[in-house]
Amino acid sequence: METRKAHILEHWQIVAILLMLYDFSAILLSYFVALWARFDFVYTTIPSAFLSAYVRSIAFYAIICIIVFWVTRLYKIIWRFASVVELIKVVEICIVLSLLYSVIITAVYGRMPISFYLWGGATQLMFLVAIRFSYRFILLLQTVYRKTDETVGRVMLIGAGSAGQMILRDINRTKEVNDKVVCCIDDNPNKWGRFIEGVPIVGGRDDILTNVKKYHVTKIYMAIPSASAEDRKEIIGICNVTDCQLKQLPGMYQFVLGEIHASDMTDVSVEDLLGREPITADMQEVFNFINGKVVLVTGGGGSIGSELCRQIAAHNPKQLIIFDVYENNAYAIQLELKEKHPEVNLVTLIGSVRDSRRLFKIFDEYKPQIVYHAAAHKHVPLMEDSPCEAIKNNAIGTYKTAYAAMVHGCERFVLISTDKAVNPTNIMGASKRLCEMIIQSFDAKIKAGKAAEIPQLFTHASEDNIDKDEIGSIFKNVKTEFVAVRFGNVLGSNGSVIPVFKKQIEKGGPVTVTHPDIIRYFMTIPEAVSLVMLAGTYAHGGEIFVLDMGSPVKIDTLARNLIKLSGYRPDIDIKIVYSGLRPGEKLYEEKLMAEEGLKKTENDLILIGCPIPFDIDVFLTQLDDLMTVAYCNRKDIRNQVAAMVNTYHPDNTAHL
């Protein structure tokens, strides 16, 4: 059976044999036709010397041609995908062989008519090219015929440059792409009124709307990978006025490699509507800071925590510890990092930041040098319904983690805070402001050499006091630096509006927006985490770093654009419903309190808010009382928080 299979020719080999037979016949015919035409297509008038020279040499020449074609791999080319490169290769080979034949036949048999050399070589080239490109030509005709049907997508291509040309060619030659490009848009006036692959370039971005109607466009493809974020935002804004489906190239990478295809076109993302270039930070300082150190990330399975773990793993830590109370998220990021960074010493631990004994055991065993504290309850409406949980997890959890870090020799503690901590109207924001005040208190006490005055908060009756000798020796060499990094909403994070809007659109609506005027600051998760890590390297202790998140975005506009990007019309195909502000929700978020000033850092995107002074001793005493109130689950906890955070003014009537 195996011997039989070995003698079965592959399809390409059969095609190669047929091509050889065709080439042999075509070469014989080419030079005969050239000689015959020279004498007015009258065979009897051809001199016997010329005819004899042709007969004696042509078969030998044809065999040489076939050998050369085989050596140069012409018989192994997939001709249905042949392009200019293959055409040039055939032309070059035929010219060289024709010149060689001219020299040989002249040297051996004497000079032949000039037209025999010229027309023989030209006819040979024509026959060889015709058979090789005929299949592709037939496919092209079929594609063009098929794409004249009214059911195809009528595409406007934005960008008549190299990327646009690649997309246009791919659409024209690919059966699976049921689209037809009917017009092109380009901002270069020099291209207007001209054609690319037979498609007219009808104007610039200002002509998009006019030509969408004129050419009955149903899809718009943006093929401008090098365009700035501001230009993309403006063009997307114009396209969103239409009912067309909008897609774009993902970026410059594939364009540089010359690997652009119509299938690479992706839906326009919401990030494109932010109207700014992606924030890129020089991470060399972060690498120097993290390299060779033990790093602990609390809440390491969350949206911010997991991205912290990804970027830390890429910066060569001595050990990375993922700590989270939710095992599924922790397991997911563990699997991802083990696959992407198998060289990293990775430890994944389950536990709560509320549990001092668990924290002390982890700090004692692994001795982390850097802590990124991302563990927190962040959902505003849920925390309004469970205020004591916000205090237990956010404020008390931060306190216990910070205390464990301090007494176990941690070098740097970075708190992930939020712009909702500024003039908070909800318990979640107030709890995060308490977290900021906690790390400021720790830092102030340490710098004053009074770390021993920071009380150890107990929630377990049998908890051992860390100061076992009761003379404060454990606090003598405390050098931990505590800082906070404050930023706004991150696109795509757990609980953010974007995933909620997308699910509502998939279900056919309605899309719920709390208020038509509500605004928020947005940043992508990788951007925010890069700046958090960079800010951590600038710390000297006690700072509240504020990330510059650009201009705020109107949530109503965001929802409408997302509906349009999904191919629907707001208020027609997908309804928008205004549900009213939720308990504790503000129309706008602030990055700084009125009392705080700003100081610059080495990075223009990272600023420092000057701390608002408060009585630290009173605050630390109040924290003990607050913990008691929280663990007793008392309903009046908001009043206790308001007494500690003077910028927090709760609406108690909303919770009666």
Low-confidence stretches: 1-6, 251-260
Strand content: 5-15%
CATH class of the largest domain: Alpha Beta
Average pLDDT number: 82
Distance between the termini: 86 Å
CATH domain fold name of the largest domain: Rossmann fold
The CATH superfamily title of the largest domain: NAD(P)-binding Rossmann-like Domain
Described by strand count, sense and barrel closure, the largest sheet is: 9 strands, mixed
Q: Tell me the radius of gyration.
A: 37 Å
Number of helices: 21
Any guess at the CATH architecture of the largest domain? 3-Layer(aba) Sandwich
- Structural class, by secondary structure, is alpha/beta
Q: Give the total of beta strands.
A: 22
Relative helix content: 40-55%
- Count up the domains: 3
How does the overall form come out from the CA principal axes? elongated
Strand order of the largest sheet: 10-9-8-11-12-13-18-22-21
Protein architecture, described:
The chain is an alpha/beta fold and 656 residues long. The chain has three domains: 136 residues, no CATH class; 116 residues, 3-Layer(aba) Sandwich (Rossmann fold), CATH 3.40.50.720; 261 residues, Rossmann fold, CATH 3.40.50.720. The protein is 46% helix and 14% strand. The chain has a nine-stranded mixed beta sheet, sandwiched between helices. Helix 2 runs antiparallel to helix 3 and helix 15 packs parallel to helix 16. The longest helix has 33 residues. It is elongated. The N terminus is likely disordered.
